[in-house]
Backbone:
């Protein structure tokens, strides 16, 4: 699913630009993925070089490890509100609707990103689309419900695959112990409605459509950034 190294300088430009929005004392939502990697890196560098102090709420085990690497103190939603969350996306449209979950982290990401006072999305140009839906919608599902959820998704017109692990036999297991079904819809007419409809299938934990929550989209290019 991932397109990790291809657009690295664009991802770095986007991640580093987002780190300019971080202020001393902020609690940050730390998204997941190869673009957010650069945001976390730059926040860590600013802490070391400028002496700013922040705390982070990771959205995955991957972002927890990265935060630890850069000495960003970890906190939780129990203890703190989030000032700013920064996260990547697999697709973003002109209304700032997103598909996320290419790294199977969308459930925690949605909790953290929705809870933030400000949410910035960082992408390279390949993620900007006219209409969502080329990228299949990741749907996290309780393992026992997989078959019936696939049936319900197919009834809604999707082609479905349980996401398979690499270097492990069998399905990807999320940080929450669940499976991910990648659901390819031929058309997503209304992201808002689909986001709600998918979550009303019993057994679905969360889906990767994010709507009505993004404040700013920073697009990294090979020589800088632009905003949508
Ligand atoms: O589950 C993973 C996340 O939603 C990522 O933020 C998304 O897949 C984008 O990742 P990347 O920046 O690696 O393309």
Residues:
């Amino acid at each position: 699913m991932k397109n990790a190294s291809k657009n690295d300088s664009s991802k770095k430009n986007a991640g580093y630009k987002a780190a300019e929005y971080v202020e001393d004392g902020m609690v940050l939502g730390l998204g997941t993925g190869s673009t957010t990697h650069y945001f976390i890196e730059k926040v860590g560098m600013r802490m070391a070089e400028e002496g700013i102090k922040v705390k982070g709420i990771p959205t995955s085990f991957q972002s927890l490890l990265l935060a630890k690497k850069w000495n960003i103190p970890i906190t939780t939603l129990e203890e703190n509100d989030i000032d700013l969350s920064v996260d990547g996306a697999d697709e973003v449209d002109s209304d700032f609707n997103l598909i996320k979950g290419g790294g199977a982290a969308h459930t925690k990401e949605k909790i953290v990103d929705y809870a933030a006072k400000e949410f910035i999305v960082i992408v390279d140009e390949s993620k900007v689309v006219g209409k969502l839906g080329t990228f299949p919608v990741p749907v996290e599902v309780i393992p026992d419900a997989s078959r019936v959820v696939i049936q319900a998704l197919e009834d809604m017109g999707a082609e479905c695959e349980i996401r398979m692990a690499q270097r492990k036999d069998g399905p990807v297991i999320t940080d929450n112990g669940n499976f991910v079904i990648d659901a390819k819809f031929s058309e997503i007419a209304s992201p808002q409605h689909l986001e709600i409809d998918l979550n009303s299938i019993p057994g679905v934990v969360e889906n990767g459509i994010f709507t009505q929550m993004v404040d700013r989209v920073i697009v990294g290019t090979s020589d800088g950034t632009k905003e949508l």
